[in-house]
UniProtKB/TrEMBL annotation:
Superkingdom field: Bacteria
SUPFAM superfamilies, alphabetized: P-loop containing nucleoside triphosphate hydrolases, Ribosomal protein S5 domain 2-like
One example GO MF annotation: zinc ion binding
A biological process term (GO) from this entry: recombinational repair
Keywords: ATP-binding, DNA damage, DNA repair, DNA-binding, Hydrolase, Metal-binding, Nucleotide-binding, Stress response, Zinc, Zinc-finger
Entry function: DNA-dependent ATPase involved in processing of recombination intermediates, plays a role in repairing DNA breaks. Stimulates the branch migration of RecA-mediated strand transfer reactions, allowing the 3' invading strand to extend heteroduplex DNA faster. Binds ssDNA in the presence of ADP but not other nucleotides, has ATPase activity that is stimulated by ssDNA and various branched DNA structures, but inhibited by SSB. Does not have RecA's homology-searching function.
Domain RecA family profile intervals: 67-215
Similarity-based family: Belongs to the RecA family. RadA subfamily.
Name the record gives this protein: DNA repair protein RadA
Span(s) of short sequence motif RadA KNRFG motif: 252-256
Transmembrane region(s): none
């Protein structure tokens, strides 16, 4: 078994002491020491040094990856984020807010793994609760073995003794502890030390391990941000608990692409993968309503269509409100200022409410143009032309800027039957885009400010580098 030692580490210069000190003897900073753990391999299982073994570098081209056999979860959206399934000995951290559906998705994976044997370490729930969940999901759970144990050393010895284990699930990492480490379970040294021990066990046995980790309000895996360096893969399960859609994102993956996204729907009988997300998101979209605009946004390498909704009403008291749900409120303020200045539309007397339908969060700048058009469509009470989609970044000068993956976005829009694509390729300025998007041939170029901008931009274009 590897040895664990408690040390105190200076957060400023990384100096380590065996006991807590107020001032760091190395860098002189005060109150920078935190309790930490160091896990060291014993000489038998660690490096080859000192064993009389000749150590030589291996030519990379001679290393074959063909023999790596991935364990498919049989859920294509989950495999997509993993990069094709679990790699032997892979340690995956599944993070998310409490109640978002982490245990549910893992139960779904256990169900879809069929007869493959899974060890489920239950630290949060009793076996009864897990049984109720499985029953609710119509899962007989014959391949699922529950271990109600919090001691990490005991968990590892059970996992090593069990035969033919395909996967170990630890729900959650904040509930397990080691007697060798100081502090209560969930504390930084405990979580870090236990994760290191489990990672070593995973590498030794070749069994993939999924660790569940809760995130706090700031969206950081509670306390142990340090875990991110230990594990191979980090998946975040996100979504608005009020809505049924959930997104599974990769933020780190040693065995596959990052920024991949899997989309799921929380249903009565567990988490169902969504194979045609855009179609589903647009199901409730009512064409011909003012303030509604369809945006094409990239989620990882996949284009998705979202409905951006804006509602503008006259401000009743002095200061106009700008509220955004699923979109950055500061970005909305910038776009509102750009609209006012570059199109001449006065929004100072309007409250603006922006919403991304379905409870999603959009952070891509490619949604800017759709947000601007939705706001203008609402304030002018003119619907956007039917079968049109929008994407593009809006610059402070009112120009529509290029975004990545234009081909993929257009292809997805056309596949779903959209005919008019308003993008940096078809509109150079916000004014042009709005004129193309709004029905009844609304033309903003007649606006006072718009004219002024045209002269400004001409003057700017005249200055050429020499
Ligand atoms: P859970 O997986 O327990 O969340 P976490 O492990 O992330 O804390 O899921 C909690 C919610 O999911 C709970 O409010 C009930 C709901 N749920 C469903 O809607 N359908 C289901 O089939 C299951 C099992 C749970
Ligand atoms: Mg849970």
């Amino acid at each position: 078994m590897p040895k664990i030692r408690t040390v105190y580490t200076c957060q400023n210069c990384n100096y380590q002491a065996s006991h807590w000190v107020g001032q760091c003897p190395q860098c002189g900073e005060w109150n920078t020491f935190i309790e930490d753990v160091v896990v060291s391999q014993n000489s038998k299982s660690g490096s080859h040094a000192g064993k009389g073994v000749t150590i030589a570098p291996i030519q990379l081209s001679k290393i074959s990856t063909k023999n790596i056999k991935r364990l498919s979860s049989n859920i294509s959206e989950f495999d997509r984020v993993l990069g094709g399934g679990f790699v032997p000995g892979q340690v995956v951290l599944l993070a998310g807010e409490p109640g978002i559906g982490k245990s549910t998705i893992l139960t779904d994976i256990a169900k879809s793994l069929g007869d493959k044997k899974i060890l489920y370490v239950a630290g949060e729930e009793s076996p009864d609760q897990i049984k109720i969940r499985a029953e609710r999901m119509g899962y007989p759970a014959e391949n699922l073995f529950i271990l109600q144990e919090s001691g990490v050393e005991q968990i590892i010895s059970v996992a090593e003794a069990e035969k033919d284990l395909a996967l170990i699930i630890v729900d959650s990492v904040q509930t397990i502890y080691s007697d060798e480490i100081a502090g209560i379970s969930g504390s930084l040294p405990q979580v870090r030390g236990c994760t290191q021990l489990l990672t070593m066990a995973a590498k030794r046995t070749g069994i993939p391990v999924v660790l569940v980790g809760h995130v706090n309000k700031e969206g950081v895996v509670a306390g142990p941000k340090v875990l991110e360096h230990i594990v191979d893969t980090i998946l975040y399960l996100e979504g608005d608990p009020q809505h049924m859609f959930r997104m599974l994102r990769t933020s780190k993956n040693r065995f596959g692409p990052v920024s991949e996204v899997g989309i799921f729907e929380m249903q009565e009988k567990g988490m169902k993968e969504v194979k045609n997300p855009s179609e589903l998101f647009l199901e409730e979209h009512v064409a011909g309503t003012s303030g509604s605009c369809i945006a094409v946004v990239m989620e990882g390498y996949r284009p998705l269509l979202f409905e951006v909704q804006a509602l503008t009403i006259r401000t009743s008291f002095g200061y106009p409100r700008r509220t955004a749900s699923g979109f950055n409120a500061n970005r909305l303020q910038v776009l509102v200022a750009t609209i006012e200045k570059r199109t001449g539309i006065d929004l100072s007397g309007h409250d603006i409410y922006l919403n991304i339908a379905g409870g999603f969060k959009i952070s891509e700048y490619a949604a800017d143009l759709a947000v601007c058009i939705a706001v203008i469509s609402s304030v002018k009470d003119l619907p956007i032309k039917e079968k049109s989609v929008v994407y593009g970044e809006v610059g402070l000068n009112g120009e529509v800027r290029r975004v990545s993956h234009t081909e993929k976005r257009s292809k997805e829009a056309k596949k779903l039957g959209f005919e008019i694509i308003i993008s940096p390729e078809t509109a150079k300025s916000l004014n042009e885009a709005v004129s193309k998007a709004l029905s009844k041939g609304y033309n903003l170029d007649s606006g006072k400010h718009a004219k002024q901008n045209t002269t400004e931009s001409k003057r700017y274009n005249a200055v050429k580098p020499v």
